[in-house]
């Protein structure tokens, strides 16, 4: 296949001295699916910004269709037939699907082309939708369609502008497994129609599943370009991280002790007032990890919020040792050695405008150890923060760095450090490694298992089935607010098996108590 | 006595005339607020813009003897100040709310300052023989009993305000500019990533709001009354912002919202004219503002319910 794009020896040094790219080569052939992998901060985004003309490279050349090019901005890149689907959707929610697709390039009519030609707009969008089989209701408002369809709108947007080379930036981060499969079907369809795809991700399983070739970035350099069929996940992750990575969490068999948490017949409403939990019962013993599997939005969020005191229950009871958690306030629950890693670290897990040190003492600041009369003892806080940052490998300039300036992985380590530093007897970890890179995932998983071995009861909620399976001793599957399966995590339990329960195809007959 | 008077005005349709007149400044200002809000640069400074325009309009109008020149001067002043708001908020990155407040304080203070410096007046300035925005009498129709009173004899500005509703509908929903405006207000990065000049669009949104606030202000001094009184807008600019929310951020909703406020103001005006009214006039003057609070509470409750019933 002929070469479509060649980026040679790209360097990018920012004025503050940060070197984001330090010699990257990327060669993309026409009609291939080229995966660009690397940990957070490896320089993927910078490279794509340079390709798109959002940043000027300090050094290096870009050849596109055999010609050296320099882009002055996304407009130029778009004109040359490139399109980018951003990780965070660039859509206007109250506009319709078709309005979003043609935005900025609307078909016009009338005097001085003053008016929108909506008939032509609908015809062109309709044509695009049917050509590429990206099914979506073009008259619906974007705010009312599911995430998977929003992504199709993004893809249609770049296709409408005639993109031949399409860059997908972590497209599966927000998708359910089913939506991911649909996306992959669309990608294959695009390639068969002559498009070329650059697929940015750090999910290696997806890389193996969809790509033809892989370029690995590490610390701003391109480390290797591999043919997918000649490599495997272990090799790629070694190249990404720079050392061997354990995919299986090493753990000894659990030694369950007394029941720590007993949930009985729990019911709760979601934000819209519909019943999201319909009588859920389970127990967790000290020294075991209970995994909660399920497609997102089947009651996991509500379950975690009720147990941690953030949401009111409508029925049932939650007993923690001998206390009634439903009657306790959030502060009281936190004082009972309950650790909670919230699913969204940006809004619930950390205060982005506070420093790392402040975030680390967010729920210990009343502790007399950190106080000096009515004031906070800054010195002690600083010491504590330094120790925590060391233990949990938080990479930042110092403890005064704003939490908002940290990468996702580092911020998550701060949250996990805070929650583990009080030696919880019950740890509730919701999406503990979402958007976190491989090295940090391994670390967080090890820490969670360490607590289990120390006798804590752990509940892990994750949208990543592989994570639930790696960590849990027992797994319950939530579907539509009910527990549809309780499974022992034996080696012969497969993802397919759990998948059937997650989709509601299979259902166990469960006794209320176990 | 009070009810009889109101009923009498309803029957002889003069209530409609009063209502339309009092609705016009609110409607125009709300449309201005709407466009700025849709563009993501909500213009809190409508009140100050209206005052500046009201003063300029009557000053220029009376000195040239031409109402149209006066109105144009008022609108131009208002648009110019809006551009200034854009300079401070879009270029110098001052929060748009703060800029808006600054304009309100400036508008109130500066008009009083000019009035005392130029005309030596401190409370109000009422030039004799200042030209008014003309009244449109429609031939033939004005002689038809009911229809004549309904359609004929209104100020030109009333018609301009009503036509502006249609104009805004068209501008916002039927032109590429309108789609760009909406996208810039809601997802500025998305708009920019597609090459839409977000800043320029926001400047223009402010300019539109200035133009409409200018028309509203000019009408208050050159149509509704024939003078400039200090702080004569009396919160109309803020009522207009409430109407933007109440009208669900679309021109038709805003027309309905303005009608409600127009009605409240009209009732207040009529009741005030009743001799020996048992109700203290201060209470009557409260009506439009009480309606504002009631309407916003209603709006909030309705939104909450709708959120609860969403699928």
From TrEMBL, chain A:
GO terms for molecular function: ATP binding. Residues 5-244, 261-505 form the ABC transporter domain. Coiled coil: none annotated. Signal peptide: none annotated. Gene3D superfamilies: P-loop containing nucleotide triphosphate hydrolases. Pfam families: ABC_tran. CDD domains: ABC_Carb_Monos_I (cd03216), ABC_Carb_Monos_II (cd03215). Keywords: ATP-binding, Nucleotide-binding. This is ABC transporter ATP-binding protein.
Automatic annotation (TrEMBL), chain B:
It comes from Paenibacillus mendelii. The lineage of its organism: Bacteria, Bacillati, Bacillota, Bacilli, Bacillales. This is ABC transporter permease. Pfam families: BPD_transp_2. The keyword Membrane applies. The keyword Transmembrane helix applies. InterPro entries: ABC_transp_permease. Keywords: Cell membrane, Membrane, Transmembrane, Transmembrane helix. The chain crosses the membrane at residues 6-29, 41-61, 67-90, 97-119, 156-173, 227-246, 253-271, 283-301. It is a multi-pass membrane protein. It is found in: Cell membrane.
